[in-house]
Amino acid sequence: MIDMMDIIADALKDSVNLLPFLFLTYLFMEYVESRAxxxxxxxxxxxxxxxxxxxxxxxxxxxxxxxxxxxxLFSGGVISLGTLLAVFLATSDEMLxxxxxxxxxxxxxxxxxxxxxxxxxxxxxxxDALVMALKKKRTKTIHDFCESEDCEEEDGIFLAAAKHTxxxxxxxxxxxxxxxxxxETTGFEAMMxxxxxxxxxSVPVICLVGLIPNCAASVVITExxxxxxxxxxxxxAGLLVSCGVGLLVLFRADHNMKESIKITGIxxxxxxxxxxxxxxxxxxx
Length: 285
Prior knowledge:
Blueprint: H1 4-16, H2 19-34, H3 39-48, H4 51-57, H5 65-75, H6 81-90, H7 95-101, H8 106-133, H9 142-148, H10 156-185, H11 188-195, H12 199-210, H13 215-226, H14 232-241, H15 246-253, H16 257-281
Helix pairs in contact: 1-10, 2-5, 2-10, 4-6, 4-8, 5-6, 5-15, 6-8, 10-15, 12-14, 12-16, 13-14, 14-16
């Protein structure tokens, strides 16, 4: 029997936790917009070249709020594609808390997190280098983002940031409710256990599951790994792309569906590539 109250409660919990991250992100963007020609923009630009490094390091924190923040900053033209992907690939969502609660050895946790962050940083720098080589530099700015969101200058940065936050948060809440309902009614965990039997098939499939913009994805993937139902390669593939609601924020805030779909495809490709490479090399955690 489906417990709608639990579904609603889980959706609210996941969404409410994002509010401070979303508000601070949009407050920062509004501040940069109001100081568009000052040192703030120049500072961000200088840091941009090392963005993937900083993006990868944020993955140490087990909170998908950072991926939501990165999606907002990318939509406003503040960070590069490589930096966005580094944050997405490094973010662990519910992985670390589950590892700790199951008493996983510290050395194993450090190894998994280290590999995950290393992959995120390397992938971010490679993507940025390819973007530069292909001369696909993005021209979108925070000013463009604010225009698309109908910002009013007289609102002030705090009110404008609050308006952005509410718009994005309501979108995330509605999608989370729908996802929680679907996951509850489709026998999600049972399907994953069936798929996990084939180790080579499990890498692309588990990676696809990781793209579900909901904490349930990282929970199921981590539990399957802890119960030795999937290999380290499949686990890494799924958790690399399991960036919580980051993708939801990207699709809602970027206003470029084609670009968002391409980014999702790149993420999936990277997840499968690294997962299969781990399998081929026989790396265990």
